[in-house]
Write a structure and sequence with these properties.
The protein has a single domain, classed as Nuclear Transport Factor 2, Chain: A (Roll), CATH 3.10.450.50. Strand 4 (71-79) and strand 5 (85-94) form a beta hairpin. It is globular and about 30 Å long. It contains three helices and six strands. It is 28% helix and 47% strand.
């Protein structure tokens, strides 16, 4: 399956360490949940990005993508100075942006 554009940009921005591009992949009212920790909107998602993503030099690789009823379940391989290993991310898209991302 071809990677949907917002998910591709999310991965590329993370791997490039480009915070501005990373935040630009989300809608203005986006929701992110990371194993039960919730973040709403650009300021909170920017905090998560600093503590758990670009801020810990994460590098992402897509292992698989499974579309399901308006969402995409993406198996991601992560390397960096934070979490290392594989995990699932469920993306809900709104046009060319991410409306929600649930990790775990």
């Amino acid at each position: 399956m071809t990677t949907p554009e917002p998910i591709r940009r999310f991965v590329e921005a993370t791997n490039a360490g480009d915070t501005e591009a990373f935040l630009g992949t989300f809608t203005t009212d986006a929701f992110l949940s990371d194993w039960g920790r919730s973040f709403q909107g650009p300021e909170q998602i920017a905090r998560w990005n600093q503590s758990d993503n670009i801020g810990v030099k994460s590098h992402l690789g897509i292992v698989s993508i499974t579309p399901a009823e308006g969402t995409y379940r993406v198996r991601i391989a992560v390397k960096g100075k934070g979490f290392n290993g594989e995990g699932d991310m469920t993306f809900t898209l709104d046009g060319d942006r991410i409306a929600s991302l649930v990790i775990g």
